[in-house]
Specification:
190 residues
Length: 190
């Protein structure tokens, strides 16, 4: 079985939230630390995917990080940076803005993983399209992303749709909830 590394996507600009979503506290610690703890039992090692500014802020941190290596919009930058950093590993990718995520979903992804496919992901909350921000990306997906970027395609969801991916039904759709702005966070807290 291919080595499985963890990757917490924290490198977004968090413009709608107005503050770094990876540092929001939902479970008595910053979200990036909570997700790291959730992923550790499944992964050889867990990294934070960070942008250049975050890398400077975390210079004294012992947490392993992968700095965005490309000038790409969105989460594809972090995913491609990880697949480039260790192209022999599969990557268990989790977005930092999923505060309802539990081991229920992580277990389902690991049990449903198909290494012969490019990736294993859930259908999104509408049950129609792949959810690209929570899934396992196999090493073979790296060259696919590189070619897509050369062709001007930056959507991980589009790449999952166009390539051979294992699509699973989420055991609890609430766990896929993204909290991207203060009003969504307020609703979650109420």
């Amino acid at each position: 079985m291919t080595k499985l590394n963890g990757l917490i996507l924290t490198g977004g600009r968090s413009m709608r939230m107005g503050q770094d979503k990876s540092q929001l506290v939902y479970h008595e610690k910053p979200q990036r630390e909570h997700l790291t703890d959730l992923l550790k039992p499944y992964c050889s090692v867990v990294y934070w995917s960070v942008n250049v500014a975050q890398a400077h802020e975390l210079a004294d941190s012992e947490q392993l990080r992968i700095v965005d290596a490309f000038d790409l919009p969105g989460p594809l930058n972090g995913i491609l940076s990880a697949l480039t950093y260790d192209p022999e590993a599969a990557w268990f990718v989790v977005a930092c803005d999923m505060p309802l995520l539990t081991v229920l979903s992580l277990d389902a992804l690991v049990k449903g993983r198909n290494e012969a496919k490019m990736a294993t992901v859930f259908y999104d909350s509408d049950g129609q399209l792949p959810e690209p921000l929570l899934g396992i990306y196999e090493p073979a997906f790296g060259p696919v992303i590189q070619q897509a970027v050369k062709n001007g395609v930056y959507s991980p969801r589009q790449l999952l749709q166009q390539n051979d991916s294992q699509l699973l039904t989420a055991p609890d759709l609430r766990e896929l909830t993204n909290i991207n702005d203060p009003s969504a966070r307020a609703k979650l807290d109420s």
